[in-house]
Structures are given as C-alpha cells and as structure tokens.
Specification:
Blueprint (H helix, E strand, L loop, with lengths): L2 H9 L19 H8 L1 H18 L8 H13 L4 H22 L30 H6 L10 H13 L11 H31 L5 H34 L5 H4 L4 H4 L5 H24 L5 H12 L5
Helix pairs in contact: 2-3, 3-5, 4-5, 7-8, 8-9, 8-12, 9-12, 9-13
Length: 312
Amino acid sequence: MNKTLWVALAGLLMGISAQAASFDCAKARTRLEKIICSNETLSKLDDLMEEDYQLVASAPVPPTNLQQRKRQWLNRRASCQTVNCLELAYEQWIVELRSQAPCLFELNTSSCSSRQARIVKLPRTADGRLMLLSENECRAGVAYGSEPKSRIEKIQVQADCVEAGFFFTCDDSDERLGDAQCAPVRLEVMERRIRRAQERFRKIFSGSSDEDAVRRSIDASQKNWVSDRETICKEMNRRYVSLREKVDHDWEVDELPPEEREGASKLGYCFVDLTYKRAGKLEEWASTLETSDSSVERTNSLLDFLSSRISR
C-alpha cells in the first residue's frame, strides 16, 4: 500500500468523528471493554480500527458485506481470553480494512478484490511489539498527547520505529542534523542487535558444561570491545577534526585523496560503523551455532573470537 495515499485518505476522517474509539472507555462495562481500556496497545488498536472502519465505510461505494464482516470480527474478538489473542484479532481486521481502503476511493473499484491481500501484517519491533506510532510521532520520538520524553527515551522510541521499518532517521535530515539525530538512533538499533545475539549465545549453551565459560567470555568481550571502540573512534575523530580544519565544509573532507582520509571519521559515524560490524559478526556466530551440532572445536573457536580485540 502507498503510505502517502493512506495518510491522505485517513485525513478525510478528521471531520467524521471527534471520538475515534469504537466505544467510550469512561462507560466501559464488560470484561472485554475494561481489558481494552486498561491496555495502551489494545486501546490504540481500537482507535486505529475504528478510524480504518469509518474510512472504508465512507467510500463512495463501500463493500456490501462490510457490516456483516464487522459482526463476524466482533464475535471473534469476544471469544478472546488473552491480550495476545486480542492483539491478533485487531491486527487481522485492521490489515483487512487497510488492504481494501485505497482502491475504494479510485474511480474504478473493480480491482479491490485482487488487491485485498497486499498488506499482511502491521509493523513490529525486533522483539515483536506492535509499532502503532505515526511517521510524525516517530520523528518526534513521542506519541501525540503524551508527555515529552528525555533524549534517551526519544532515542528508544525512534529505534523502535526503525526496527519496525516504519521510520528512517535520516530521511529528512541534512548532514548537520544527521550527526546529531541519525547516529544515536542507529547506534541504539545496532546495540540491540548485539544484546540479542549475546542472549542467543546464552540460550545455546544453557545447561551445558561450557555455560559458565561462555557467559564470562561474553561479559568480558563486551567490556573490552566497548573500551576498544571508544579508543579507536576518538582517535579517528581527532584525525577527522584535523582534516576539517584544512577545508571550509564537511563534504570537502570526502573529496580529499584517500591516503589523506585514511583513519579519519566523525565520532558518531565511527561508533555506528564498528557497532554494525560487531552486530553482524555476533549474529553470524549465533546462526552458525544454532544450525550445527555443538563441538569442542566450535566452542573454542567462539571463545577465541570473543577474546579477540578490535583494531582499525
């Protein structure tokens, strides 16, 4: 689905209803309504569902069986006993509505049925959490109506958006903003990958005779790697600053001969580059260990890798 088209269509609803939710939480009476209202994700899903339903219903020629499908969905939702079941029920209905909505506003709606299955799921973070923020909320690092967050909290939110494939931090940043905004968010995404890979190692060796050795090696390796990364990147940044003093603009540094630029990089870019490589290596090791029989040689090779130091 074209995201720009969907945003434009959704804007048509602004005058339809001041209350987007399918029911008023202040008047929630049933067990199901109370569960939805007490859960931030479910409440947001309910808001989105009602907006999407109203959008489809307001089409020049809405689907003839729309109300019947909604009743079927309500019955399916009512059968849920867990939050996970409710999340899945909402996601399936929202996906169904969003898959059909854009073509209903075209002059020729005959293609609607063939395009109904284009969207298969809502965006999620790497750990499976639904990403329900808008693109503008992702840029701001906070949901509209929420309290302003600290810089660290904003980076966490924006990293969630990046993981969900919903927002790229440098889409609307020039180079100056890129230094301040892109590097910290990219770095958080890469460091999350590292932590997940390390957790995969712990699970692989859980209960084995090598469990303690691997855990100690993971902790020591991470500590040494963080120290090495800081040392290397500070030196590369020092070289970059020295080159920057010789030219008028940052982009002119990139036009210097390769031999002059060797070993020079902005601090943030260096951190992201080394962290990206570290994450990739750890993930590669984890995948190899998960898909092959463990052996003494392979375990020793992993321990050797974890004990190695980085250099530039």
